[in-house]
Design goal:
By secondary structure, the chain is an alpha+beta fold. About 30% of the residues lie in helices and about 30% in strands.
């Protein structure tokens, strides 16, 4: 909630008070380093991309508060995230143009270029979404193998028994329903604050990962997530959390130096020592809102959380809809792997091969 509020403050500092600014999307929240002590925290951010249209990208971070006005060290950065904010006319609720960023230094140019890269990447992903295109050949082959495997699990005439670590996707779902109260509204009108919605979806996703794995999950990241429709005060918010994708991770190395391995991510060293395996669990939370009379229903957003659990578990889809959820989540996991500099390309490829082999054999 604090990060969303900070993004709003930064957005208004750029646009002024004459417009209404709303959160359109959370592009990513990533844990960089562990917080291992009680200390003061510093929240900071800036507009990192704005072309003069209605939207802007806000980049934020949480770090240990530096002492004596010193610069924040990279090892003190605990979390980074980016929000997409949109400016609207307060009367008509239509998008309004805002001032573009003025670049004044090479460092600012580098930040702007990264924001532009993120913007173009989102447009490219939208063009290949599963609602617009069918799965590719590799994905189609994996889906077919998994479908055959789950048929074997249900056929009493075959010797194949479903392993205890394999859990059907339909069995992982958790639901919640809440009446939206006025203390959580935003500053402009009687719509619920986006940061509060993020808090509720995270708590349900955490509970879903915990009930699925029977362990305490460790949060890794919030993947790109969107707000589709506002949530009015007095409406009923329905949330559904589903384990969308899992992959096996090698064990974490026992090392006191965690600067290159935030939150104890699995490493090849741990795998070579034969230590216990971990699983990465991606949870998708779908939200919809209904008025009290339940006469109208609207989708309000989709949120994608990734956790690490100390257990070897796998999720198995059964219906076509579930296979599409699994495929979309697998694509997200692949994009995360490609963006993580701490994990080598060979290791990432090996992890995907082991996971795909385990769910199809």
């Amino acid at each position: 909630m604090d990060l969303d509020a900070l993004s709003g403050i930064i957005a208004y500092k750029h646009t002024g008070e004459s417009v209404m600014t709303v959160t359109a999307a959370v592009d990513r929240i990533t844990i960089k380093n562990q917080l291992t002590e009680l200390c003061d925290l510093q929240l900071s951010g800036q507009v990192s991309f704005a072309t003069g249209r209605s939207s802007m990208e806000i980049s934020c971070q949480i770090a240990r508060a530096p002492k004596g006005g010193a610069e924040t060290a990279p090892g003190d950065v605990l979390l980074t995230c980016t929000f997409t904010m949109v400016s609207l006319d307060p009367a008509t609720k239509n998008p309004v143009a805002i001032a573009p960023l003025q670049i004044e230094s090479p460092d600012e140019q580098a930040i702007y270029d990264l924001g532009e890269k993120n913007y173009q990447a989102k447009k490219a992903l939208a063009s290949v979404a599963l609602r617009k295109t069918s799965p590719n050949a590799e994905e189609g082959s994996l889906i077919h193998k998994m479908w055959l495997k789950q048929l074997d699990y249900q056929d009493s005439s075959t010797p194949t028994n479903k392993p205890a670590k394999v859990i059907y996707m339909e069995s992982t779902r958790l639901h919640s329903a809440q009446i939206m109260q006025p203390q959580y509204r935003n500053r402009h009108n009687f719509m619920i604050f986006g940061g509060y919605l993020l808090k509720q979806t995270f708590e349900l996703a955490f509970s879903c990962a915990a009930s699925f794995s029977h362990t305490r999950p460790t949060f890794l990241s919030l993947d790109p997530s969107t707000f589709q429709n506002p949530v009015p005060v007095g409406s009923v918010l329905y949330l559904t959390a589903t384990v969308a994708y899992t992959d096996k991770q090698p064990a974490t190395a026992n090392s006191d130096d965690n600067s290159h391995n935030p939150v104890g991510r699995p490493t090849e060293e741990g795998q070579e020592k034969g230590e216990e395996a971990f699983s990465r669990v991606q949870v998708r939370v779908d939200s919809k809102v209904r008025n009290v009379e339940h006469g109208e229903t609207k989708p309000t957003g989709q949120f994608n959380y990734t956790f690490l659990v100390k257990k070897d578990v796998e999720v198995m889809p059964r219906t076509y809809s579930e296979f599409m959820i699994w495929t979309d989540a697998r694509r997200r996991a692949q994009r995360v792997d490609a963006s993580l500099g701490s994990c080598g390309a060979g290791q990432r490829h090996g992890q995907r091969q082991r996971t795909e082999q385990s769910v199809t054999e």
